[in-house]
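A reminder from the course coordinator: this example appears on the midterm review sheet, so study it carefully.

Given structure:
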């Protein structure tokens, strides 16, 4: 009886997790995932397909960070958020993004002569 309860709980949790995964994906990507796969198997499939080091994406992310500009003081939290997000994305890819690089890009985006 305890084993049956554990199995029912696992099936329920697996269905809930699969629903969360499906809500976050586009219909095209959803069609790739088999309904008979467990949530863990679906996650592994997504990881194999999308969690790889892409040099082009790294270049685009670095270019985006380098071209980011602080427009006015009210934009400061958004400006810093872009860099925090970029650092997080590099970390998720396992790419080295040094503090020096981040500071240089951040300072590069500040106005030369603030007119605030």
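Designed residues:
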């Amino acid at each position: 009886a305890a084993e049956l309860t554990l199995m029912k709980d696992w099936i329920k949790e697996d269905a809930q997790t699969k629903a969360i995964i499906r809500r976050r994906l586009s219909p095209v990507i959803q069609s790739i995932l088999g309904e008979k796969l467990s949530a863990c198997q679906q996650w592994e499939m997504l990881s194999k397909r999308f969690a790889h080091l892409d040099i082009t994406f790294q270049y685009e992310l670095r270019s985006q960070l380098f071209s980011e500009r602080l427009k006015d003081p009210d934009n400061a939290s958004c400006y810093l958020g872009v860099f925090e997000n970029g650092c997080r994305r590099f970390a998720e890819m396992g790419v080295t993004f040094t503090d020096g690089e981040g500071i240089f890009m951040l300072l590069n985006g500040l106005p030369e002569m603030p007119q605030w």
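The radius of gyration is 21 Å. The longest helix spans residues 2-23.
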